[in-house]
């Protein structure tokens, strides 16, 4: 998608990175790549210790929520930019494009609010399965001096 945007701008003679929508979109893309690589490094490869994973998990959650908010913001800025550049003179006449764009914007905000609500509810988080408890990054391993059930050695 990023390559398609730059190629489209090049063929139409539009400058790259000229608007807030462009910068928010690029920030979202770069932070997503960083989140993806760090998540793979910390959670997929066995070389990361449990304490390091435990330290990174809250940051991973925070940046995941941040990326979600940034992506919705980028979409809303893109819709606004399209309305300003394409139909600015007829926008106040309730043209179908404006109604569709505003409806899509309201639905995006509603979707973001619903997802944000779900993410903040502790009772909606999946409880860990029994087989996951022994391997969980939230518990210290036997080699670090504590057992997974919370008792000390």
From TrEMBL:
Cofactors that this protein relies on: heme b
Localization in the cell: Cytoplasmic vesicle, Secretory vesicle, Chromaffin granule membrane
Any single GO CC term annotated in Swiss-Prot or TrEMBL for this entry: chromaffin granule membrane
Domain of life: Eukaryota
Annotated catalysed reactions: monodehydro-L-ascorbate radical(out) + L-ascorbate(in) = monodehydro-L-ascorbate radical(in) + L-ascorbate(out)
Primary role: Transmembrane reductase that uses ascorbate as an electron donor in the cytoplasm and transfers electrons across membranes to reduce monodehydro-L-ascorbate radical in the lumen of secretory vesicles. It is therefore involved the regeneration and homeostasis within secretory vesicles of ascorbate which in turn provides reducing equivalents needed to support the activity of intravesicular enzymes.
Name of the protein this chain belongs to: Transmembrane ascorbate-dependent reductase CYB561
């Amino acid at each position: 998608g990023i390559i398609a945007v730059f190629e489209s701008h090049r063929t139409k003679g539009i400058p790259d990175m000229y608007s807030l929508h462009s910068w928010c979109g690029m920030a979202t893309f770069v932070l997503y790549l960083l989140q993806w690589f760090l998540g793979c490094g910390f959670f997929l490869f066995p070389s990361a210790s449990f304490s390091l994973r435990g330290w990174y998990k809250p940051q991973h959650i925070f940046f995941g929520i941040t990326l979600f908010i940034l992506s919705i913001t980028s979409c809303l800025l893109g819709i606004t930019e399209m309305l300003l550049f394409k139909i600015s003179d007829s926008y106040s006449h309730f043209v179908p494009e404006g109604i569709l764009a505003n409806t899509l914007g309201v639905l995006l905000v509603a979707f973001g609010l619903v997802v944000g609500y779900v993410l903040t509810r502790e009772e909606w988080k999946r409880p860990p399965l029994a087989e996951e408890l022994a391997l969980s990054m939230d518990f210290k391993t036997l080699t670090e001096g504590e057992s997974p059930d919370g008792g000390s050695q």
